[in-house]
Amino acid sequence: MGRLTFIIGGARSGKSHYAEKLAKESGKKVSYLATSIPFDEGMKNRIQKHRESRPKEWITIEKYRDFDKILESKEYEETDIFLLDCITVMINNLMFYSNLDFDNCTVEQVEDLEKEIIQQIEKLLALSEYKDMIIVSNEVGMGLVPTYKMGNYYRDIVGRVNQRIALKADEVFFLISGFPMKLK
């Protein structure tokens, strides 16, 4: 059975650095699940810096959905620990590419989208059944309430997904200014 570690915190709190530190210290073969999409120059630059900061021997898998396909891959066999960075970017991509008009859609449509997102989360968590996994996410419920509908839906969905992952996790760390606090 794999061990699931969940790392959560605010923007620039040191989550990614801490997750990478844990993965490195494990001494295990790491696959890094990168959920970002290089949609502009700023994001391309950020992705490049993340790549350069990771050890060269780590396998990088760029994916934000359909994680069940990894179960049948060569990468799954060659991996001891998966590190996913990050859930909030993954959910952002799933919401954006749903093509839902969040200003005019029904609550039922948003609920259906959330069910699809939960299905993707369950596919991701299936990787941790036999392999160790570290998952990074942002805590989005401690800031301002978004003034637009998509932002409200996003915050609520991320909050519920974070709770789901934390409940299933063996360990949960909350990062503040680079310092981890163990919650579970």
Describe the protein in words:
This protein has helices spanning 15-26, 41-53, 74-77, 87-96, 107-126, 149-168; strands spanning 4-9, 30-34, 59-62, 81-85, 132-138, 171-176, 179-182. A seven-stranded mixed sheet has the order 3-2-4-5-1-6-7, sandwiched between helices. The longest helix has 20 residues, at 107-126. The protein is built from six helices and seven strands; from the N terminus they run E-H-E-H-E-H-E-H-H-E-H-E-E. The chain is α/β, with parallel strands linked by helices.
Task: Give a topology summary.
Elements: E1 4-9, H1 15-26, E2 30-34, H2 41-53, E3 59-62, H3 74-77, E4 81-85, H4 87-96, H5 107-126, E5 132-138, H6 149-168, E6 171-176, E7 179-182
Parallel strand pairs: 1-5, 1-6, 2-3, 2-4, 4-5
Antiparallel strand pairs: 6-7
